[in-house]
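As a warm-up, study this chain.
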Amino acid sequence: MDSPGRILAIDYGSRRMGLAVSDPLGITAQGLDTLERKNKRADFGRLERIVREYHVREIVLGNPLRMSGQEGAQSQKVAEFAEELRQRFELPVHPWDERLTSAEANRLLREAELSSKKRAQAVDRMAAVLILQSFMQARGIH
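Now compare it with the structure written out below.
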C-alpha cells in the first residue's frame, strides 16, 4: 500500500518558524528544530530539504486570525507565504486557525518547568505540533 505521506506544519513568524511533521501514517506529530529566519533563499532551502527528507505530501500553515476571527496584517503575510509554498513545492497548502496554539504551547511548556530561555526556543516548535495535531484531529486521522 502506498503510504499517505507526511504532513509538514509551519508556525510562521517573522524571525522564526516552528516546524513539525506527522509520522508516515499521519497519526502523530513530531517537532523539528525551529527554523531561524535568514533570507528567503536560505529559508526555502531548509524547507526544501525537509520536504524531500520526510517525503512531505502536504503542508499546514498556521494562520494567525484575530480572536474575532478576522484576518489581520500577519494573516496577509501568511497568505502570501502559502502561495509561495504552493508554487515552489507544488503541494497542497492548508491555512489553519492557530489563534490559541502559541498560548497553549506556552502553558504546556510552563507546566514542564522549562527555563524561560528554553521555553522561548521551544514554543514555536510546540505551536507547530499543536497546529498539526488539531489539523489531523479535524480530519479524523487521530
